[in-house]
Amino acid sequence: MRDLIILGTGFAQATRCYNTCFAIRGGGGVFLVDAGGGNEILRRLEAAQISLGDIKAMFVTHAHIDHILGVMWIIRMVNAAMKSGKIEGELPIYCHNEVRDALQYMCDNLLANGSFGFAGGRIKLIEVKDGDSFSALGMDFTAFDIFSTKKKQFGFAGDVDGERLVCLGDEPLEPRCRRYAQGADILMCESFCLTRDEGKYKPHSKSHGTVLEAARTAQDLGVGRLLIYHTEDSDIAHRKENYTAEAQQAFSGRIYVPDDMDVLQLGRR
Ligand SMILES: [Zn+2]
């Protein structure tokens, strides 16, 4: 049994919740996906009782600051802990070439002291190409290009203890990615806002969508469980209730609109 720990649920400019990122805990460690926009990731990990040494692998979807700057804090802290002998082993970070280049540049130029060297190579930036497979903590995933028109971005799909989990990154499903998401047991999908707030937020102009659109997509794909995140943050107190109600109009499976730090159980039971 593994836990899906939702560390953040907000869009880039959210201030009432953290930027979207999550962790899968189990199988002897933690697989961390994105890290939000800064140092807050360290507090989130502490709150979830995840130590830096627990993180055995990472995946970074794209190089927008609300996803990648927190990764710099993980690298900085893990690098120091590895060098001082507090963390054993390696930390592979799976990402596409643009993320790898951005992380490499920031590590070379933004971190203090020239001796930074990915803990002697133990922190590994591992490039994945569209359709490449990778494994983490006994889970096998396939990375795929979501065909963002804003910035190159990858999602991933794979098997988590008999359940097919698909992460679409922070944009709606692009038709060319359908084969990865079809029949997913759990689909992690962005929704910027409710349909009634479309005029206010104009999600489509930002390559985002509404809750109803995500629900229709999930229904069409025959998804078992739909998880909605990467939202606007104007009414977090009622978000779960309002977004769930809208998603129910089009999707008959289980719907999760997590708050930050909510935990879901993964895997066939
Ligand atoms: Zn984002």
Could you name the CATH class?
Answer: Alpha Beta
Main pleated sheet = 7 strands, mixed
Taking all Cα atoms into account, the compactness measure Rg is 18 Å
Which structural class do you get from the secondary structure elements?
A: alpha/beta
The CATH architecture category equals: 4-Layer Sandwich
Average residue-wise pLDDT = 95
Order of helices and strands: EEEHEHEHHEEEEEHEHHEHEE
Number of strands: 14
Into which percent range does the helicity of residues fall? 25-40%
CATH topology label: Metallo-beta-lactamase, Chain A
User: What fraction of the residues are assigned to beta strands by DSSP?
Assistant: 25-35%
Number of domains: 1
Bound molecules: zinc ion
Distance between the termini: 8 Å
- Which outline best applies? globular
Number of helices: 8
- Let me know the CATH homologous superfamily: Ribonuclease Z/Hydroxyacylglutathione hydrolase-like
Low-confidence stretches: none
User: Strand arrangement, largest sheet?
Assistant: 6-5-4-3-2-1-14
